[in-house]
Specification:
The complex is a heterodimer of chains A (about 575) and B (about 575).
Chain A: H1 4-18, E1 31-36, H2 39-43, H3 46-59, E2 66-71, E3 83-86, E4 90-92, H4 100-110, H5 135-138, H6 156-161, H7 166-173, H8 177-187, H9 199-208, E5 214-220, H10 229-236, H11 238-252, E6 254-261, H12 266-281, E7 286-289, E8 294-302, H13 312-319, E9 343-347, H14 348-360, H15 362-366, E10 376-383, E11 389-394, H16 399-406, E12 416-421, E13 427-430, H17 440-445, E14 454-459, H18 464-478, H19 484-501, H20 509-523, H21 527-531, H22 534-553
Parallel strand pairs in A: 1-2, 5-6, 5-9, 6-8, 10-14
Antiparallel strand pairs in A: 1-3, 3-4, 7-8, 10-11, 12-13, 12-14
Helix pairs in contact in A: 3-4, 7-11, 7-14, 8-9, 8-11, 10-11, 10-12, 11-14, 18-19, 18-22, 19-20, 20-22
Chain B: E1 2-6, E2 9-13, H1 19-25, E3 49-52, E4 59-60, E5 71-73, H2 77-92, H3 108-116, E6 139-141, H4 151-159, E7 166-168, E8 175-177, H5 194-198, E9 204-206, H6 210-218, E10 223-228, H7 236-239, H8 249-259, E11 263-266, H9 267-288, E12 294-295, H10 300-309, H11 323-339, E13 346-352, H12 356-360, E14 376-379, H13 380-389, H14 411-414, H15 421-435, E15 453-460, E16 463-471, H16 473-484, E17 492-496, H17 514-529, H18 540-550, H19 556-561
Parallel strand pairs in B: 1-5, 10-11, 10-13, 12-17, 13-14, 16-17
Antiparallel strand pairs in B: 1-2, 3-4, 3-5, 6-9, 7-8, 15-16
The chains are: A alpha/beta (about 575), B alpha/beta (about 575).
Chain lengths: ~575, ~575
């Protein structure tokens, strides 16, 4: 493809085929079955369901009239395998191979919905067949995950049909580099990796930095326990990341991008590799893109299993082929990133926002969210909650809405206790703060952080000392060992809390924990160490009584901790 | 210039300076542990934390660059408290074995603990447990004492370009060791000991061989002879508490005698001999079309480096043994016969500024007397320890002369201890041998100093002799790569393994830094100037040696005793 016209032609011809996914019945096709092919549904054997469905279609002689598309993550992992059947947008859940025949013969061939596979809201008598009507989806707003319901992640033409690469085309032909950066700044987009730094400012610093070549890097080293937002994007819509990075390349004058993906995400790596290959084939990566003279290409770098490589300087060091350890900032990546050259580094989710911002404009984006936190945020709901999985909501949605409305509340009629955000760097927010709007600043004020989007719901049976111990154990294991406060300090904190949790706690331990925590926060080298004490500090802040009970009464009210005699 | 405020003092420094450097200008001494000027600036230990107005966390002064208008406080109660806790954490993972540690009273961690007034370590949790690696004949590693400052990695990787050490495992289990925790002896480690020189604690130390020497001295059957390297005379003073740059030649000789050594000889004697052998070898190569450039072979760390990393260039090495090994071979042949001592009874000790010499004396090529030519090598640090153990008040000992004949030497031999010294000594001799004329100005300033690669052309008769001098193996690489690429037209190259030459060797007193190296170099040239004889070929004892024993340079006996051969080792081979 050598021009925008060609891109437009592909879009038009492909759109015609995809009308069915917008609810328009097709003369030649009976249905498109969007089977969730996220890692969660694959684990719950959605591929077997696909096989059974194909068999049934063949048996009934309609194999050429029905497309089965393996999508990226559709969200409600707990209900997997799930699927959406178009044109009527029916949502089916908990599919087994034996259900395939009913879907084919009843729904697709006769138009009768398979009632037993439909979603029912908690307490509702009647099922909700249409995906858009389901409460779980209705309160969400999809920008990052805009394509997951509609496209085949392995089809670049599907992506193009849904406005894919149009923003890149616009950035190449209608916007000057500084105008692109200005748009991103005005959109108010902040880094979705957790720290929430202004993306536009980051790009501006890098564009203005001395030194060539410049680089664009995507952080796909998602490592917080229970978090899989980035995996969902990479598996479900890899081109959105490629397009975002290419737009940035144009904005800052970079010709090379790297996507750093953790090795534990083989499907994401496979789909992204394929997408990069296709983008090259279609002339959207490589030399002289769309005949504009702009060159840009992307390579994948696979991590080696270290959580710390999600920290930006450690990630850059790892890309260079060295032991993944953080380096002091300044210099910041904007001035000295990969190979010491100016580099923009953003997280997967941040990249996926970029094409929409460029295409629809900064004003459209800035109208979504709160005053200082714009747009949407993808969260991974996990723990003691009915609807586990991936959601995307506007910034400012309250924790209550997320947990009780979208998340469907707590199973087994248990009491809600707290929600843990931000993983090992974050904190626990107790019930009294449930009406807090979720944005960068209000979560920070509560001693938690937005983080990358992991949200673990805890109920009354959860011991908070045990939770703090779990996260400390994680950071002790994942500390790179370079700086002394993190290497030794987190270990000592773990040892103290381990003693508390097995009945060996002493008077003064809480104070010692606080002293260690505040010093580690103030002296550790990188973000990992500086935030590692947060789970302890926030549980002491809100649940100090549980610590005291363990120490003084040698009692764990939740019966989680086992005491030594 | 950047203007900032440190502890209420206004200061202006060059852009790019660190807070640590700026603070020194206003008299604020910020404590450090992992930091080593110019060599290791990584901000890992977090001892040098300071408060910077507006910053979210404390800031590591060693790596943080100054910024215009910055307001820094280096000693607030909060900063002091944080530093103390970080140090307490480091101590909580350190064996409390100070009294029996090699580095007792010369340990940076111990000094910090004293300065910070640490009275108690409140954490009694797990400690790093890795076994001691004493596989190397030169260096012993005790990972339990390691504070993970990584200075050793930095010097091994960036200065020596050997990369024998790296960080492995992670978190609390992080270990600084050869890759895959291989034994040091199985690595491409060249035994230079620069790691032991920069280690702030006792985690990397020289292999302590003093007990062997005490045992030999206690054995009435042994005839114990000792040789002292050129650099040791300007290092021993430091090892026993004197100022850097002190010359302790005479005191060292009398001290060694009082310890009970039967003969106190001088490696300088065989340094002069080396010049005659090596100078003639050079002339022979030049006149007969031998392999050029010829490269010196005095430095055993350099030899092993060449064997591993440039095995294709071994033919460029002079076949001369190092002065230490020439001495060893002669002590158990020429001297034994002359003194009427059975060589089997001779115990040959050598005092070197060098850890690689401990390895060299055990090489299979170094048994040409029929015995191990040099029995044991002590570093300058170990000699200092023996002086202390013997209760010798070195500074107040009388100055005595070396024993004859292997104690007679010239100034040319003394300067072997500094980078460029071998070259200068060679030029003094080769010039006179070739031209038959007396060299008037014998001070070749161009050879001297700490510059990594020095080049010069010396007119010797009709021949413009092109020479190069390197110190530190990273600098040697630069010249060796030129040879490989066919871009080097030198005749003669001096390579010294350690920065500054032997005065900066891995067995030197601690600390050894640029400033101290320069003082030792000054002392070496002072020693040269005060010698009566300053050209190797004027050494009367060497002349007698040839007359009585060796016959002529490069002769049959020389080949047997004074020359050697090398092994192609390559890399990644055990």
């Amino acid at each position: 493809m050598k021009s925008l016209d060609e891109l437009a032609k592909i879009k038009e011809s492909r759109r015609a085929v995809l009308k069915i996914r917008e609810g328009v019945p097709s003369a030649t096709e009976k249905a498109h079955v969007m089977m969730c092919g996220g890692a969660g549904c694959i684990s719950s054997k959605c591929l077997d369901v696909v096989d059974a469905m194909k068999e049934s279609l063949s048996k009934n002689g309609i194999a050429d009239q029905v497309q089965i598309i393996l999508t990226g993550c559709l969200g409600p992992c707990d209900m997997g395998p799930v699927a959406i059947v178009y044109p009527d947008a029916t949502f089916y859940r908990r599919l087994k191979p034996k259900d395939a025949e009913a879907i084919v013969e009843e729904h697709i061939m006769k138009g009768n919905l398979v009632q037993r596979l439909l979603y029912r809201s908690p307490g509702a008598k009647e099922p909700t067949p249409k995906v858009d009507d389901i409460d779980l989806f209705a309160k969400q707003k999809k920008i990052v995950l805009r394509n997951n319901f509609y496209i085949d992640p392995t089809s670049i033409e599907d992506y193009i049909a849904n406005n894919g690469y149009a923003a890149f085309g616009k950035a190449l032909t209608q916007l000057k580099p500084e105008e692109i950066i200005e748009e991103v700044k005005k959109s108010g987009l902040r880094g979705r990796g957790g720290a929430g730094f202004s993306t536009g400012m980051k790009w501006g610093f890098t564009a203005g930095a001395k030194g060539t070549p410049k680089y664009v890097v995507c952080n796909g080293d998602e490592g917080d326990p229970g978090a899989f937002m980035d995996r969902s994007v990479l598996e479900g819509d890899p081109h959105s990341v490629i397009e975002g990075m290419a737009i940035c390349g144009r904005a800052i004058g970079a010709e090379q991008g790297y996507v750093y993906v953790r090795a534990e995400y083989p499907l994401a790596i496979e789909r992204l590799s394929y997408a990069i290959e296709k983008a090259r084939e279609y002339g959207l990566l490589g030399k002289d893109i769309l005949g504009t003279g702009f060159n840009f290409d992307i390579e994948i770098r696979i991590g080696a299993g270290a959580f710390v490589c999600g920290e930006e300087t450690a990630l850059l060091t790892s890309i260079e082929g060295k032991r993944g350890e953080p380096r002091p900032r300044p210099p910041f990546p904007a001035n000295a990133g990969v190979w010491g050259k100016p580099t923009v580094l953003n997280n997967v989710e941040t990249w996926a926002n970029i094409p929409e911002i460029i295409l629809k404009g900064s004003a459209w984006y800035a109208a979504i969210g709160t005053e200082k936190s714009k747009g949407t945020k993808v969260f991974a709901l996990a723990g003691r909650i009915n609807n586990t999985g991936i959601i995307e909501v506007p910034m400012g949605t309250t924790l209550r809405e997320i947990v009780f409305e979208i998340g469907g509340g707590i199973p087994r009629k248990k009491q809600f206790k707290a929600v843990q955000t931000g993983g090992p760097s974050g904190g626990c927010i107790p019930a009294e703060h449930m009406d807090t709007p979720v944005d960068y600043d209000s979560l920070g004020a509560l001693g938690a952080i937005m983080g990358s989007g992991g949200m673990i719901v805890l109920d009354e049976d959860t011991c908070m000392v045990d939770i703090a111990k779990f996260f400390l154990d994680f950071v002790v294991d994942e500390s790179c060992g370079k700086c002394s406060p993190c290497r030794i300090g987190t270990k000592r904190m773990y040892e103290i809390i381990d003693n508390i949790s097995n009945g060996q706690g002493k008077e003064g331990d809480i104070e010692l924990l606080i002293e260690l925590a505040t010093t580690i926060k103030a002296t550790a080298l990188c973000g990992l160490g500086q935030t590692a004490p947060n789970p302890v500090l926030s549980t002491i802040r809100y649940f100090r009584n549980e610590y005291e009970e363990h120490i003084k009464d040698k009692k764990c009210a939740c019966n989680v901790c086992e005491f030594k005699e | 210039m950047i203007n900032l405020t440190i502890d209420s003092q206004k200061v202006a420094v060059e852009a790019g300076a660190s807070i640590l450097e700026a603070a020194q200008l206003v008299g604020a001494r910020i404590p450090t542990l992992c930091y080593l000027k110019d060599l290791n600036v990584i901000g890992a230990c977090r001892i040098c934390m300071v408060e910077v107005q507006g910053a979210r966390t404390f800031i590591p002064a060693c790596v943080a660059p100054v910024a215009e208008g910055m307001v820094v406080r280096t000693n607030t109660p909060a900063v002091i408290k944080a530093r103390k806790l970080v140090l307490e954490l480091i101590l909580s993972d350190h064996p409390q074995e100070c009294l029996t540690c090699n580095r007792n009273q010369n340990c940076e961690l111990q000094k910090l603990a004293e300065e910070f007034g640490i009275k108690e370590v409140r954490f009694d949790g797990a400690k790093t447990e890795y076994p001691i690696d004493d596989s190397s004949p030169s260096i012993q590693r005790d990972p339990r004492k390691c504070v993970l400052c990584r200075r050793c990695i930095s010097v091994c990787t960036n200065v020596q370009t050997v990369q024998a050490l790296c960080a492995e495992n992670r978190g609390f289990d992080t270990l600084i060791a050869p890759a895959f925790n291989e034994k040091l002896a199985n690595m491409e480690c060249v035994n230079c000991g620069q790691c032991s020189l920069v280690c702030p604690t006792g985690a990397i130390v020289e292999k302590d061989d003093t007990a062997k020497v005490w045992a030999a001295l206690a054995d009435p059957k042994k005839h114990v002879v000792v040789q002292t390297a050129p650099a040791v005379r300007v290092q021993l003073g430091e090892a026993v508490g004197a100022e850097p740059g002190s010359i302790f030649t005479g005191q060292m000789v009398s001290g060694l005698r009082r310890m009970g050594f039967d003969k106190v000889f001088d490696t300088d004697f065989t340094a002069d001999l080396t010049i005659l052998e090596e100078g003639n070898e050079l002339l022979q190569r030049v006149t007969t079309g031998g392999t050029l450039p010829m490269i010196t072979s005095c430095s055993p760390g350099w030899i092993k480096f060449c064997e591993h990393f440039y095995p294709d260039l071994l033919a460029h090495l002079s076949t001369c043994k190092s002065p230490q090994q020439m001495f060893g071979a002669l002590a158990k042949t020429y001297y034994a016969k002359k003194a009427g001592v059975d060589p089997a009874d001779i115990y040959s000790v050598s005092i070197m500024p060098c850890t690689a010499k401990k390895y060299e004396c055990q090489r299979p090529e170094m048994f040409s007397s029929g015995y191990q030519d040099v029995d044991v090598v002590l570093t300058s640090r170990e000699l200092g320890a023996m002086f202390k153990q013997a209760g010798l008040d070195a500074a107040n000992l009388p100055e005595e002369e070396y024993d004859e004949p292997l104690g007679i030497s010239t100034g040319a031999a003394a300067i072997f201890g500094a980078s460029g010294g071998v070259m200068e000594a060679a030029v003094r001799t080769v010039y006179e041998v070739v031209t038959g004329q007396t060299l008037e100005n014998i001070d070749f300033e161009v050879c001297r100093g700490l510059t990594g690669v020095k080049e010069a052309t010396v007119q010797v008769g009709d021949l413009p002799v092109k020479v190069a001098i390197t110190n530190g193996l990273g600098n040697a690489r630069k010249v060796l790569d030129k040879i490989r690429a066919g871009e080097a037209d030198y005749h003669f190259i001096e390579v010294m393994c350690c920065p500054g030459g032997c005065i900066g060797g891995g067995g030197s007193p601690i600390p050894t830094n640029t400033e101290i190296r320069l003082k030792r170099i000054d002392a070496i040239y002072t020693e040269d100037e005060r010698m009566v004889l300053r050209k190797s070929h004027e050494n009367p004892a060497v002349t007698t040696l040839y007359e009585e024993f060796l016959e002529k340079p490069l002769g049959h006996k020389s080949h047997e005793l004074l020359h050697t051969h090398y092994t192609q080792r390559g890399v990644n081979k055990k």
